[in-house]
Model the fold of this input.
Amino acid sequence: MSGPLDELLDLLDDSGEVIGTIWRSASDETRNIRSVNAFVKNRAGEVFIPQRTAHKARFPGALDFSVGGCVQAGERYDDALRREAREELNLDVDAYGFYKLADFNPHVTDLSSFMRVYEIRTDQTPHLNLDDFSGGQWLSCADLRTRLNKKEAAKGDLLKVLNLLSM
Done:
């Protein structure tokens, strides 16, 4: 059942082809949805890692990707990235440029969804949407991995994606 903040997502088959739609509120029952995640990376090679607000229903207070979210029904991955970056970081990714790092199938990688991961290059610290994030910091990938390996609270796929990308 949908709610006022719910969104309609494409439902995919196991190979990633659209076969219907599903409400986001019901999507915990399947991995067969699409998502985007991105790392904002500076010239020093550090990634900007925000911390989710304590009132988030999923992964409250946890470290997160720089940008992340579901791809809405009929939406293209690149457009979802643009929308999520504006919503979460007040960032126009077209002004900085972005590129795809990888596409992942959850049935091969054990991730939570069909996922496209991007990199956005800028030395500018993003302006966080305080409804989504309580703060953030620039971290080397090695420091981030160390913290995640010590079981610091983090969004579920963050360490898996870092390892898959060998960052």
